């Protein structure tokens, strides 16, 4: 006995095992089971095991399209009891999806009863609904009794189930698939079967055909709910070439004219996998939150046909602009991913491109053709052998009758007398007396001739690959004719459009334009007062607080806030709290920590420039467009050294820079020495040995430098003493310069 085994009194043994190794081994087994036996479809028939078992069980129950319906509970019971050892709810759910016309592009199950709807309502319980196979499901099963595919034992060993279906229909791409396994997933949208057959025929004709040639036949996904595919041809090509990508799908809509020049938008098709009732709820909620300012009302006037009515706020709104706002904010535009991760013929999961998927299906169909032909050939050989025995019996009828009547063991005598096989002798002995008439002999000779011709044809087929592919092309052409574009089921439902041109939506058009006065306190409380209140007006603040910044703006403006952490933030003026209260902390409107302070707050204008600087005297010029931050987290503009913070953000309104430090040294230099950047540390504007930046100003050099003393302004035109180059130390400012070292 090995040393690492510990025997137990009951006769068993314990082997020490590393927990990590044991967990890895067991989890890997679970992961592989999930990948290969549950979540990923087979590239050959496009089915997961539960779907394949459902179709096989229904086929066993003789639920063909021409047969009657059977209760779904009976079908689910058979599937669960014989083939699929999982819960009945999951089996029924899979069955329902195969029957839903809005979920499956080509339903494989025909349901009778309530199988749910596009609003997202569930199907009735399985005891109330009935089902049978569709013609497409019959095509998937065609030839399954003719040794077309391999079978394996079921989980309990009592039954046999097919490993894969013959799949005369390109089900994987036609119906698509979705699944999440362990560590991998698949997402394949549905496509048009007629286009898939056309692409497959092109691949048969030219096995070296590349993706561009295939896409001339197959233009993109075709969803059961219709809609409009808005994706660039380049993106579509890349997705199908690699097997990974995505498609944007929009609702189909039209402008419906009403009386007196008014109009409304009617949505007739919505994107795939979007529940209509949930969609309308989302639109209504966004209206309530005032996030759809161009929309006045939404109504659901659908019957069995989708009809969602959208009313604009007024007739001057452009329908395209209204719909663009809805596409951006609601699932009326959805993105569906493409991840063609499937199990190949060797049951190995991998991502395939369009050509490889079609090639795998064609190779499977070729194998099915060979196996069915060989099965038929074997059956013909057996039948011809029996017919040859019958013909020998007819030629020697009296002798055959004598042997049967007189011999105790007629079978071996017949075999030895007429050189018959065991099968022929058995057939002769089982022949009915009525078959001895002359007419029956003629029928046998006719059947023999017909079967001999078929045998010769099949032998030629099996002996020539070219003939096999020609036969396969005929079968695919027949499938295309039966389920293709010319049929009601097969006509394309999803329109293909180019990527839409960008519709510029000015959000300020949604806001009523009115003047406001923005008030920011020292402690960071912000509010907006109606109208342009004089800036020198006194305002009430919380105890210990006072005015920091007051400025005039309009509700359509955007405000730029520059903070000591070097970030810029954008605030919409219309979003500021109104009224006579204290407002709200600006830190709740933007991502500003308690350690950061506001350096500057101003009305953002396009085309302007600003000089930003840190307290270590480094800075640069930045355009106003580069200060805009789309998110509340802000935009890092000025990169700061440890221990330093942003100290200035002043408008560039001149050609000269004046800068003064806490060491009370003033330096004046040309603005052209300061670079324009989008972000970074910048360059040294003034050098400090023992001090930091106090204030900076950009002015017109010829006009002179001004600063405020009390209520009046002082002007200094002769700046020769303080002029120099950037990064200089500077000199003592003129007499009378403010002690707080500020220009304003």
From TrEMBL:
Residues 40-503 form the Topo IIA-type catalytic domain. It comes from the Bacteria. One of its GO terms (molecular function) is DNA binding. The record marks 48, 84, 86 as: Interaction with DNA. The active site is at residue 128. It catalyses: ATP-dependent breakage, passage and rejoining of double-stranded DNA. Keywords: Cell membrane, DNA-binding, Isomerase, Membrane, Topoisomerase. Residues 723-744 are annotated as: Disordered. Its EC number is 5.6.2.2. The record marks 127 as: Transition state stabilizer. GO terms for biological process: chromosome segregation; DNA topological change. It is found in: Cell membrane. GO terms for cellular component: chromosome; cytoplasm; DNA topoisomerase type II (double strand cut, ATP-hydrolyzing) complex; extrinsic component of plasma membrane. It is a peripheral membrane protein. Heterotetramer composed of ParC and ParE. Topoisomerase IV is essential for chromosome segregation. It relaxes supercoiled DNA. Performs the decatenation events required during the replication of a circular DNA molecule. Belongs to the type II topoisomerase GyrA/ParC subunit family. ParC type 1 subfamily. This is DNA topoisomerase 4 subunit A. It comes from Teichococcus aestuarii.
């Amino acid at each position: 006995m090995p040393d690492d085994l510990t025997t137990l009194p009951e006769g068993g043994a314990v082997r020490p095992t590393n927990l990590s190794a044991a967990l890895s081994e067991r989890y890997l087994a679970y992961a592989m089971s999930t990948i290969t036996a549950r979540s990923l479809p087979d590239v050959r028939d496009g089915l997961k095991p539960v779907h394949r078992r459902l179709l096989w069980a229904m086929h066993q129950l003789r639920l063909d399209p021409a047969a009657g319906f059977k209760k779904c509970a009976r079908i689910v019971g058979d599937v669960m009891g014989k083939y699929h050892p999982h819960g009945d709810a999951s089996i029924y759910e899979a069955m329902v999806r195969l029957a839903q016309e809005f979920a499956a592009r080509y339903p494989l199950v025909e349901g009778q009863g309530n199988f749910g709807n596009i609003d997202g309502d569930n199907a009735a319980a399985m005891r109330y609904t009935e089902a049978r196979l569709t013609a497409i499901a019959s095509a998937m099963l065609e030839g399954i009794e003719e040794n077309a595919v391999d079978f394996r034992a079921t989980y309990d060993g009592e039954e046999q189930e097919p490993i894969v279906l013959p799949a005369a229909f390109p089900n994987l791409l036609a119906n698509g698939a979705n699944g999440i396994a362990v560590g991998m997933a698949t997402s394949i949208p549905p496509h048009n079967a007629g286009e898939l057959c056309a692409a497959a025929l092109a691949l048969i004709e030219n096995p070296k055909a590349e993706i561009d040639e295939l896409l001339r036949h197959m233009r993109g996904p075709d969803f059961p709910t219709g809609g409009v595919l808005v994706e660039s041809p380049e993106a579509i090509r890349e997705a199908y070439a690699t097997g990974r990508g995505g498609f944007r799908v929009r609702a189909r809509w039209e402008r419906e004219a009403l009386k007196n020049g008014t109009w409304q938008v009617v949505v007739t098709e919505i994107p795939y996998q979007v529940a209509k009732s949930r969609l309308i709820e989302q639109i209504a909620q966004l209206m309530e939150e005032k996030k759809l300012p161009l929309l006045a009302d939404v109504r659901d006037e659908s019957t069995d046909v989708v009809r969602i009515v959208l009313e604009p706020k007024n007739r001057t709104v452009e329908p395209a602009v209204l719909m663009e706002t809805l596409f951006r904010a609601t699932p009326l535009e959805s993105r569906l991913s493409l991840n063609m991760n499937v199990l190949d013929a060797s049951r190995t999961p991998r991502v395939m491109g369009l050509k490889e998927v079609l090639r795998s299906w064609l190779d499977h169909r070729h194998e099915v053709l060979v196996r069915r032909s060989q099965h038929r050939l074997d059956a013909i050989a057996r039948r011809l052998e029996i017919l040859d025995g019958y013909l020998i019996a007819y030629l020697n009828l009296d002798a055959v009758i004598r042997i049967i009547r007189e011999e105790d063991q007629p079978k071996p005598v017949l075999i030895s007398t007429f050189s018959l096989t065991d099968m022929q002798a058995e057939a002769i002995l089982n022949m009915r007396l009525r078959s001895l008439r002359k007419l029956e002999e003629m029928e046998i000779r006719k059947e023999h001739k017909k079967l001999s011709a078929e045998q010769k044809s099949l032998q030629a087929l099996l002996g020539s690959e070219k003939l096999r592919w020609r036969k396969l092309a005929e079968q695919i052409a027949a499938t295309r004719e039966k389920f293709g574009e010319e049929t009601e089921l097969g006509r394309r439902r999803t329109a293909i459009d180019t990527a839409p041109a960008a519709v510029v939506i000015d959000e300020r058009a949604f806001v009523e334009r009115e003047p406001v006065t923005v008030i920011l306190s020292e402690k960071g409380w912000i509010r907006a007062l109606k109208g342009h209140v004089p800036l020198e007006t006194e305002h009430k603040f919380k105890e210990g607080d006072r005015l920091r910044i007051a400025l005039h703006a309009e509700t359509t403006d955007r405000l730029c806030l520059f903070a000591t952490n070097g970030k810029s933030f954008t605030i919409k003026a219309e979003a500021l709290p109104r009224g006579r209260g204290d407002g709200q902390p600006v830190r709740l409107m933007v991502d500003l920590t308690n350690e950061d302070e506001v350096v500057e707050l101003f009305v953002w204008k396009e085309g302007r420039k600003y000089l930003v600087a840190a307290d270590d005297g480094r800075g640069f010029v930045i355009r106003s467009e580069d200060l805009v931050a789309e998110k509340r987290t802000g935009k890092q503009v000025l990169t700061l050294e440890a221990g330093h913070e942003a100290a200035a953000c002043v408008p560039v309104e001149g050609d000269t820079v004046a800068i003064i430090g806490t060491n009370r040294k003033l330096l004046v230099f040309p603005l052209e020495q300061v670079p324009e950047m989008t972000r970074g540390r910048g360059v040294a504007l003034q050098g400090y040995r023992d001090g930091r930046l106090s204030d900076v100003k950009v002015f017109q050099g010829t006009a002179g430098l001004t600063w405020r003393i009390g209520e009046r302004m002082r002007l200094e035109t002769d700046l020769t003493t303080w002029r120099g180059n950037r990064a200089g130390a500077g000199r003592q400012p003129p007499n009378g310069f403010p002690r707080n070292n500020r220009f304003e």
